[in-house]
Write a structure and sequence with these properties.
Pfam families: Rad60-SLD. This is Rad60/SUMO-like domain-containing protein. It comes from Arabidopsis arenosa (Sand rock-cress). By secondary structure, the protein is of the alpha+beta class. It has a single domain, classed as Ubiquitin-like (UB roll). Helix content is 15%, strand content 34%. It has two helices and six strands; from the N terminus they run βαββαβββ. The protein has a six-stranded mixed beta sheet with strand order 1-3-2-6-4-5. A hairpin with a 2-residue loop joins strand 4 and strand 5. The longest helix has 11 residues. The chain is globular and about 35 Å long.
């Protein structure tokens, strides 16, 4: 299943600044960041979208094997089948990506 641009948007180095008025469609999305070492990427996604879609999009953009990367939020491992609402993510939430070695 491919990720559509309407569900998740890679905002690159989004500064989080005020963008003026917010439409109904934009209210359903929020910004979060994924850090991998010193690299930080910003994404907009719908609150009801599965985290697996975001995780796979991030891994594809970084040429990482999805099976060898874990994602942490508040020190806890994120499960791909959950949504941001399931784990009470706030706008601007920080997720850490960690590469694990496969045996």
């Amino acid at each position: 299943m491919s990720t559509t641009r309407s569900d998740i948007t890679d905002d690159g180095n989004f500064d989080g600044g005020d963008e003026g008025g917010v439409t109904d469609q934009e209210e359903k999305k929020f910004v979060l960041q994924i850090s991998f070492g010193n690299d930080v990427r910003y994404f907009r996604m719908k609150r009801k979208c599965l985290l697996s879609r975001l995780m796979k999009l991030y891994c594809e953009s970084k040429n990482l094997d999805f099976e060898n990367v874990i994602f942490l939020y508040n020190g806890r491992r994120l499960r791909p089948e959950l949504t941001p609402d399931d784990v009470d993510m706030e706008n601007g939430a920080a997720i850490e990506a960690i590469l694990v070695r496969s045996m």
